[in-house]
Amino acid sequence: MAIVVEEERKSSAGGLITFLMWAVIFVIVVATVYYVFFKKPDTIPNLVTPANFKNTQRLSQITLPSDVLDQPAFKNLRPYVTPVFSSNVGKTDPFIPF
Asked: Is pTM beyond 0.85 here?
């Protein structure tokens, strides 16, 4: 008695579904590559900055008059932020064993 082994034949509908699946994957990959590498992003057009924004350099150099600095309310102000101190924590070379 002979044993005959045959491959299953794919139906034409299965081949069409496989083709459509690969086509969709290809379109997604091409669209992703286009938007990531080739499309320039929409940017905000050049806006004219207001004149009062251009004068910030002068604003940073203003000193307070002595009548403001001598007020008791100003002298009673306290900083509520703790200062950050830099310290040497850890090893200088992390690859040296203990």
From this structure: no
Backbone angles phi, psi at 37, to 5 degrees: -105, -30
61, 67 in Cβ contact below 8 A? Answer: no
Sign of the CA dihedral running 17, 23, 25, 27: negative
Calpha distance 50→47 (Å, rounded): 9
* pLDDT for 95 beyond 70: yes
Distance CA 68, CA 75 (A): 10
Write the DSSP symbol of residue 94: T
Torsion angle defined by CA atoms of residues 48, 50, 54 and 56, in that order, rounded to the nearest 10 degrees: -140
Q: Is the pLDDT of residue 73 over 70?
A: yes
- Please give the pLDDT value at position 52: 66
Name the residue ranges covered by the structural domains of the chain: 12-40+53-75
Distance between CA atoms of residues 52 and 36, nearest Å: 38
